[in-house]
Amino acid sequence: MKVWARLIVFAAAGAAAAAWSPPASALEDGSTPGRYVYVPNRASADIAVIDTATDRVVARVAVGKVPHQVVVSAALNKLVASNTQDNTISIVDLATLEVEATVALDSEPEHMALGPNGRLLAVGNIGAGTVSLVSLAANRELARIDGLFEPHNLTFSRDGALLYVANLGANHVSVIDVAAGRVVNEIRVAEPAAFAALESGGTFQGIINVTATPDGRLGFAAHGEGDTLAVIDLATQETVKHIALGDEPWRAFATADGRYMLVPNNGDRTVSVISVATLEVVATLPGAADMTGINTGWSDSVASDTVAFVISRRTSSLSSLSIARPSPISARDASFAADVQRI
Question: In terms of pLDDT, which residue wins out, 33 or 260?
Answer without folding.
Answer: 260
